[in-house]
Amino acid sequence: MIGTGDQRIIDALYPMISARRAARIENVIAERTYGVSVVLESLYDQANAAAIMRTCDGFGIQRVNLVITGPNYKCDRKVSIGAHKWLDVHRYGDATSCARDLKAEGYTLLTTHLDESRSIEEIDFSGKVALVFGTERDGVSDEMLALSDGNFKIPMAGFAQSFNVSVAAAVALYHAISDRRRRTGSKGDLSDLEQRTLRERFYRRTVRASDLLVEELRK
């Protein structure tokens, strides 16, 4: 569901939402950011992708990018617990189109990779950064590595070289959000239009049969 930030729709739906729910929506919007994003490239296990979406929602990360090169992806709702409904989920058929769109929007692409990588602790997240996670078996593709602006890794103290991808994403995204908030002094950083757009979408997700009302308003 894509919103337009139409204030008429927001005003029409607001009376149908409880005060408690409306306050919850405002709290969520206040902590949302597009400054950190995540790219999931061809994950085999849909439960991992769903778990990462749940992590993004929990940390206030609004945009998720799926590079899907296999069968059509369907979110595992048992794991995401509906978190995907509240996110901007962009789907791509190849790494090139995903990287092109993100770079056009000002993102720096950093891929998870063990070689020639900086520790995530060395990265400045005050700008727009998209963290790329690859398949559970092979990691990020050569195509995506060639398109990225650099590599990062999570420091490990044990014998294992890496975490499960959903765990790695949770650790990395928590650090990214914490670093960004520390540097910028702000939890959320949406523009007025972005806030209205999410408010409209969240209201429409909350109110049953809202599509009928929106259709009437637009007529």
Order of helices and strands: HHEHEHEHEEEHEHHH
Q: What's the story with the biggest beta sheet?
A: 7 strands, parallel
CATH class of the largest domain: Alpha Beta
Could you name the CATH homologous superfamily of the largest domain? SPOUT methyltransferase, trefoil knot domain
Q: Remind me, CATH topology of the largest domain?
A: Alpha/beta knot
Percent of residues in helices comes to 40-55%
Multimeric status of the protein: single chain
The averaged pLDDT comes out at 89
CATH architecture label of the largest domain: 3-Layer(aba) Sandwich
Distance N to C terminus: 19 Å
What topology, given as strand order, has the largest sheet? 3-2-1-6-4-7-5
Low-confidence stretches at least 5 residues in length (pLDDT < 50)? none
Give your account of this protein's structure.
With 219 residues, the protein is of the alpha/beta class. The two termini are 19 Å apart. The chain contains nine helices and seven strands; from the N terminus they run H-H-E-H-E-H-E-H-E-E-E-H-E-H-H-H. Strands 3-2-1-6-4-7-5 form a seven-stranded parallel beta sheet, sandwiched between helices. It has helices at residues 7-13, 19-30, 46-59, 77-80, 95-104, 142-147, 165-184, 192-206, 210-218; strands at residues 36-41, 63-67, 88-92, 108-112, 118-119, 129-133, 150-153. Strand 1 (36-41), helix 3 (46-59) and strand 2 form a beta-alpha-beta unit. The protein folds into two domains: 1-32 and 197-214, no CATH class; 35-189, SPOUT methyltransferase, trefoil knot domain (Alpha/beta knot), CATH 3.40.1280.10. The model has no long low-confidence stretch (mean pLDDT 89). Helix 1 (7-13) crosses helix 9 (210-218).
